[in-house]
Amino acid sequence: MTIGVVGAGQLGRMLALAGYPLGLDFLFLDRSADVPAAALAPLLVGEFTDRALLRRLARRCEVLSFDWENISVPTLRAATRGLRTRISPPLRALATGQDRLAEKRLFERLRIPTTRYAAVASRAALERACERIGLPGVLKTRRLGYDGKGQAVIRKRADIDAAWEALGGAPLLYEEFVDFELEVSALGVRARDGSEAQYPLTRNWHAGGILRLSVAPWKSAALSAQARSHLRAVLRDFRYVGTLAIEFFVRDGRLIANELAPRVHNSGHWTIEGAVTSQFENHLRAIAGLPLGSTAPLGHAAMVNLIGRMPSAASVLSQPGVHLHDYGKQPRPGRKLGHCTLVAATAKERNQRARALLRHLALSLAGAP
Ligand SMILES: Nc1ncnc2c1ncn2[C@@H]1O[C@H](COP(=O)(O)OP(=O)(O)OP(=O)(O)O)[C@@H](O)[C@H]1O
Ligand SMILES: [Mg+2]
Predict the structure, then answer these.
(1) What is the per-residue pLDDT across 279-303, written as a single tens digit (0 to 9) for each?
(2) Order of strands across the sheet with 86-87?
């Protein structure tokens, strides 16, 4: 069976790495030939808006999936009209994950607590939103944001000008700034037959809007129960097929949904070494119509992102028990180039070894375990 993947970044690359042992083949589509998945599978090069090219991709695979969620849904619909290719995850999930306003509305409809927000289409609407939601707040583009891009924090009224200057013009959303205690993400998978599996809760540390560190399982019975029920509600509502992640803030012991990702997620990379079945393999099992694998943890994992500058493989691997994933990308400030993971027998040992790894990589992270 051939899996077509729109987007050939590191997520696509890790999907292929997980899929070959299952006997799956891959065909990617991306804008450039110099992409992380290109070394692993054939690649069609062209624009994501190229309907003819998307159709060529769809014709050559049984299932079409994504490593990037910002593909035009109408174009994709038109490109696949009349073909028998399955699209997984479903397009409704893709459309929702592309638009912060649609995400908020979904969370509200499913009674999942989320940040207070207002849609902003003009400078006057931004003034009104700051008035109504209050300061500080975060102005975000509704679409195309990632790694904290397309966001501006508004702390005082005088910041409104600069925020509008930076982001005005695109449809926006203003939301309260959440003075969170911590951030966690819920990751789960749903199969075609409706069976589901959820990974244990992951705790995440961001800096400058980019994920730096994830540890799992994050043991909190109360938060885990909330996360399970929210994730289940979203998976069922979409009749979802594949892996999906929801990012949450935690304030006063309660989860507040930030955003969802209708795909494998950076905060789930620890599952490659840290769970019986990785998020990548489970995504493929789901979309290929295979039975899901166990999401049980194999210990206590920590995953550190390698951003902007790639340490040498020898340096990372000199750390006992550390696994390296190099995405083969050109270094650039703020760019995710790889990650490394360790799995320990206890949470205490994991935290100690994660601290040592961060020190070794000369990374300092406020509040790290
Ligand atoms: N309303 C908020 N209050 C406090 N912190 C926030 C808020 N929104 C975003 N942040 C911080 O910025 C990070 C990135 O924000 P968000 O997840 O909305 O952006 P993104 O660019 O879509 O990121 P991703 O790479 O996860 O797709 C959050 O994980 C959090 O640390
Ligand atoms: Mg995020």
Answers:
(1) 999 999 999 999 999 999 999 999 9
(2) 43-45, 25-30, 2-6, 63-66, 86-87
